[in-house]
Amino acid sequence: MKISVIDVGGTFIKYACMNEKSEILSRGKIPTPMDSSEDFVNALVEIYNSTPEVEGMAISLPGIIDTKNGRCVTCGALQYNNDFYLERAVREKISDLKFSMENDAKCAGMAEASVGSLQDVEDGFVLVFGTGIGGAFIKNHTLHRGHHFSAGEVSFILTDKDAPQMINEFRWGNQCGVPQLCALYAEKKHLKVDEVDGIKFFEAVNSGDPVALKCLELFTKRIAVQIFNIQMLLDPQKFAIGGGISEQQIFIDFIRKSIDALAADTDLYFPKPEIVPCKFLNDANLIGALQCYLEKYSD
């Protein structure tokens, strides 16, 4: 079995020919079309046709994805795909196609639940830290999508009573995305924002820079508060932390310390969750999109 698996990002579309064992047989990438849904669909079809003997297409993409109707409710930066019936458009160009599509963070969650760090638990939650924060709730070993397909959209959690007037500033995804961590360090060090990226920040952290360590402490305290909220609402057994930043063990350690401090400081009942790093990083969306495809066509 060979499947054409596609991970759509705001800059590039990564694609791979994969088998049912999640092995990548070949891979490539192309710039993401930014002009129209027609160009986007043509790019997907070209990728599919470039790989012989594949039996279907599995797609990971940003936004709120209506998997029942093959519709992009929203599509992140690719706003031309908002309210777009993607599956129908692709099937018009490829007949008798086996097809699946899912939100990128939910794909990462499926990867961890099926063959990653959450495969040993019934209920888990994946948090992927990047420009914003992706989320996926695994319930009874199954991806929970929600009635409107927006379950796990933690980037949009509002964090302040003044949020209706300042909705972007007080969205959790804007407060705890990696750019905000870099901006916090730049401010404290009197640097220009574009002089600091994640690599430079963690070089400072790992060299013992006290300013960088303090920024990481403040950042992970904010994360711990929302993990507390999710824990009390959904009660998962484990949180798996993903995104490129999760490769830094000190980031995972600081989240654990912040959770411990929060538990110690409150007299509320708090079933403290286990915090683990995600198993998959750059290929998480590809692996998860494949798992969604295999689940859909398991019969």
Write the layout of secondary structure elements.
Layout: E1 3-8, E2 12-18, E3 24-31, H1 37-49, E4 56-61, E5 65-66, E6 71-72, H2 86-91, E7 98-103, H3 104-115, E8 124-129, E9 133-139, E10 142-144, H4 172-175, H5 178-188, H6 198-206, H7 210-234, E11 238-242, H8 249-265, E12 274-277, H9 284-296
Parallel strand pairs: 1-4, 4-7, 8-11, 11-12
Antiparallel strand pairs: 1-2, 2-3, 5-6, 8-9, 9-10
Helix pairs in contact: 3-9, 5-7, 6-7, 7-8
Structure characterization notes:
With 299 residues, the chain is α/β, with parallel strands linked by helices. Strand 11 (238-242), helix 8 (249-265) and strand 12 (274-277) form a beta-alpha-beta unit. It has helices at residues 37-49, 86-91, 104-115, 172-175, 178-188, 198-206, 210-234, 249-265, 284-296, and strands at 3-8, 12-18, 24-31, 56-61, 65-66, 71-72, 98-103, 124-129, 133-139, 142-144, 238-242, 274-277. The model has no long low-confidence stretch (mean pLDDT 93). The protein is built from nine helices and twelve strands. The strands form three sheets. A five-stranded mixed sheet has the order 3-2-1-4-7, with helices on both faces. A five-stranded mixed sheet has the order 10-9-8-11-12, sandwiched between helices. Strands 5-6 form a two-stranded antiparallel sheet. It is globular, with a radius of gyration of 20 Å. Helix 5 (178-188) runs antiparallel to helix 7, helix 6 (198-206) packs across helix 7 (210-234) and helix 7 (210-234) crosses helix 8 (249-265).
Task: Give the DSSP E fraction (strand runs of 2 or more residues).
Answer: 15-25%
Shape: globular
Give helix and strand order, one letter per element, not per position. EEEHEEEHEHEEEHHHHEHEH
* Structure classification: alpha/beta
